[in-house]
Amino acid sequence: MIYLTILFRVVYNFIRLNFIKLFRYNKFIFTPIQLLSVNTKIDIRGGSSKFHLLGRINARRDVTFAIRNGSLVIGRNVFFNSGCSITCHEDIKIGDNCLFGPNVLFYDHDHIYGQGKLVNTEGYTKAPIELGQNIFIGANSIILKGTTIGDNCVIGAGTILKGNIPPNSLVYQKKEIIINPIV
Fold first, then answer.
1. PANTHER family under this entry (predicted)?
2. Annotated active-site positions, please?
3. What's the start-to-end Cα distance of the chain, in Å?
4. Is 71 in contact with 92 (CB distance < 8 Å)?
5. d(C-alpha 25, C-alpha 69), whole Å
6. Per-residue burial over 107-131, b = 16 or more CB atoms within 10 Å of its CB, e = otherwise
7. Of the candidates 122, 86, 90, 94, which has an alpha carbon nearest to the alpha carbon of residue 109?
8. Beta bridge partners of 126
């Protein structure tokens, strides 16, 4: 039964990804065998958008790839758990053999806002995100614009990242539970 499910996913995605390439977007490059859930959303907008799947990736339910005039490059043997989301307005590169826990979010942009102005009309500030190889990012983490993560890093669950993380690092945010009596 498991082999039929995998075969269905591979055939379904081969057809779906070719339709995206043929009818919607010709700057979409992928290898033929992909293990994307049927619920994986691919939303490419803008004439300068690029989406490259360099090798086989595996994405569970409700994973979203949204490219808005940006460039998203995903390496070989990358796994996205349920609920992961990448919104790319500039440039996001993910190296080979990376694993992402549930609900990991990527944003290579921030909204520009000012007093008395509408946030949705002011545009964005942008900076690239680059992840090396063999990285594990725990559940509910957020990767913000301008982040570079070196090879062989482990990022703890619930961590918000911005900036440079050197290779071979364990990164987490200290979380303390404080319990006080109600008086």
1. ACETYLTRANSFERASE C18B11.09C-RELATED (PTHR23416:SF23), SIALIC ACID SYNTHASE-RELATED (PTHR23416)
2. 111
3. 59
4. yes
5. 12
6. bbbeeeeeeeeeeeeeeeebbbbbb
7. 90
8. 109
Domains present along the chain, CATH in parentheses? 2-171 (2.160.10.10)
Lowest mean pLDDT among 20-34, 58-72, 85-99: 20-34
Return d(Cα 44, Cα 174) in angstroms, integer.
37
Burial readout 29-54 (b: 16 or more C-beta within 10 A, e: otherwise) = ebeeebebbeebebebeeeebbbebb
Mean pLDDT value across residues 164-183: 89
- How far is CA 171 from its chain centroid? 18
What mean pLDDT is predicted for residues 139-162? 97
Q: CA angle at residue 167 from 163 to 170, to 5 degrees?
A: 80
